[in-house]
Write a structure and sequence with these properties.
The complex is a heterodimer of chains A (313) and B (224). By secondary structure, chain A is an alpha+beta fold. Chain A contains eight helices and 14 strands. In chain B, 47% of the residues are buried. The chains are: A alpha+beta (313), B alpha/beta (224). Chain A: This is Protein phosphatase 2C.
Chain lengths: 313, 224
């Protein structure tokens, strides 16, 4: 397994994305990656902690990641009830945190502002080893609340596994243009749902959790995969660390927001093997992106395989 | 942000009836500084506003104030037309209105139907309303509306007004409604049931703490 994390703040010290969760238990073949993006609009309430002031959004994303990591550590390696435990721990953890912070409630009346609101999206995984590495099976359980995403990158391309919780039924391209409000997020009121989906993969995969700073400011959803592969296949990129730096630069150059991404490779013996496995896909994707087709036409073609179609457990 | 442009439209609805006399100067001061404060807030978030426009609706009561019931400015492009905007606000005098309630819902309906910018990659459409009074139900004197009552533009009842807010007139993701209004008909219903609204329950914002004001500005600036 290879692990890569990206994190950058638009304004130093004010980043509403938490540093991503990324824990791997090599011995048991299990792990978790997750990201959280505090909702700056809904979570604008300032809280004084010591001599510093933090927004509810800032505190919420950190808390969500901390709880996700703690829950993984508590449950690992048996992850059968992970999602239920995580939901319970989030409910309790956020209630305890707000009780600690909030000794006087604001007079504002609104459904727009929530206490400690954040997205959370991630995946726990378990490698079932076969007789050979090629016979490995990868069990995953994706979880999400909000519009941060979990993707799987396979030899055939990138797919979004999580679903965006939006107030409107928009696909990934439509939402780039319309920027619909989020319909569900983790918060201290407890009125949230942690969605989840179990899938099984019979081939090497890359699991990716990302906040909207990584994909929400690109011309089309294709470009997220394009940046992943274009940096991976750049001639000068020959190590995971170099890929990490190139990817961060690529996303930072486009993003209007904080960035948080965690990525884990499952079933690839080396960085070179990952490159080899994805080169054909990169070539065909590049051809599509630089074709004469309009962004809408490119999306229509890309969309056919974009939404995850793995074997659901 | 590279490549994306922000267009922000603000409509300020100010109750200009007689009962507002003790606080009208403070409300006008708040109205004049709102766009400055929002601009500062957005700059601090590294969000550059490409075009900011502001419009003012001073409202009273169609049933007693005749032609003075609704004074509506065009959109002023800021900062270029700042002095026109300031002059319009400064000319507002708290007068008339008769007894409570007032035509706050009519002002809100007209504000919702403003000529919102369709330009820019990202938009924010904000209505801010200050009042110390409850509102006439929209059905009030349905059969005998005053001659200058803009019947064609005003929904027949509160449900229709709610539909107008929920509909396509304003961009669903972009719209925000800030109410500095008492806990009275119909403001409480709006705050409890309409999407994307924030109410500070008081007489036209009296007693608003700095922390709550900052929260409101942040809620708008952060979500653009």
């Amino acid at each position: 397994m290879m692990l890569l994390t990206l994190w950058a703040e638009k304004i130093a010290g004010k980043g509403e994305d938490a540093f991503p969760a990324s824990l791997i238990d090599e011995e048991n073949g299990t792990g978790i990656i997750a990201v959280a993006d505090g909702l700056g609009g809904a979570g604008s309430t300032p809280y004084e902690i010591g001599e510093k002031v933090f927004s509810g959004a800032y505190l919420a994303s950190r808390l969500a990641i901390q709880i996700a990591e703690q829950t993984f550590v508590e449950e690992n390696p048996d992850l059968e009830n992970f999602i239920q435990k995580l939901q319970n721990n989030l409910l309790l953890g956020f209630q305890l945190k707000i009780a600690q912070l909030d000794d006087r409630r604001s007079k504002l009346r609104t459904r727009l502002i929530k206490r400690l609101p954040t997205t959370l999206a991630g995946v726990v995984f378990k490698v079932q080893e076969g007789a050979t590495m090629a016979e490995n099976v990868y069990q995953t359980e994706v979880f999400w609340a909000g519009d941060s995403r979990v993707y799987v990158l396979k030899k055939s391309g990138l797919q979004q596994i999580s679903q965006d919780n939006l107030t409107q039924d928009l696909d990934a391209f439509e939402n780039l243009l319309q920027d619909a409000p989020i319909s569900n997020c983790i918060n201290a009121e407890g009125d949230f749902q942690l969605f989840s989906k179990k899938s099984i993969f019979n081939e090497p995969i890359v699991l990716i959790a990302a906040t909207d700073g990584c994909f929400g400011y690109l011309p089309t959803p294709l470009h997220f995969e394009y940046y992943l592969l274009a940096t991976l296949h750049h001639l000068q990129i020959c190590t995971l660390e170099m890929w990490q730096q190139a990817l961060l630069w690529a996303f930072e150059a486009n993003a209007g927001d904080d960035i948080s991404l965690a990525l884990v490779t499952l079933g690839f013996a080396s960085f070179e093997e990952l490159k080899f496995a994805t080169i054909d896909r990169f070539v065909s994707l590049k051809k599509l992106i630089f074709s004469d087709k309009t962004p809408q036409q490119q999306w229509e073609e890309y969309k056919k395989d974009y939404y995850e179609t793995a074997i659901l457990l | 942000m590279q490549g994306l442009s922000y267009h922000v439209d603000i409509v300020l609805c100010i109750d200009a009836t007689g009962s507002m006399s003790p606080i009208i100067d403070k409300v006008k001061e708040n109205a004049l500084k709102f766009y400055d404060d929002l601009s500062v807030q957005m700059r601090q978030k590294s969000k550059h506003i490409d075009k900011l426009r502001v419009k003012v609706i001073a409202f009273r009561d169609y049933y007693v104030d005749g032609d003075m019931a609704m004074q509506i400015s065009p959109f002023f492009v800021l900062p270029d037309e700042k002095s026109d905007f300031q002059n319009f606000v400064n000319r507002i005098q708290a007068d008339g209105g008769g007894d409570e309630p007032e035509n706050g819902l009519e002002a809100l309906a007209l504000a919702i139907q403003s000529e919102w910018s369709k330009e820019g990659d990202k938009r924010r459409q904000i209505i801010v309303l200050w009042t110390d009074a409850s509102t006439h139900p929209l059905e009030f004197k349905a059969e005998s509306k005053p001659q200058n009552y803009p019947t064609a533009q005003i929904p027949k009842n509160f449900d229709d007004l709610t539909d107008l807010w929920d509909g396509q007139t304003m961009n669903r993701a972009s719209k925000r409604l800030i109410l500095y209004s008492p806990d009275a008909y119909a403001w409480t219903d709006i705050a409890n049931h309409w999407e994307n609204t924030i109410q500070y329950p008081s007489k036209a914002g009296e007693g608003l703490s700095e922390i709550d004001y900052q929260t409101i500005l942040d809620a708008i600036a952060n979500s653009v």
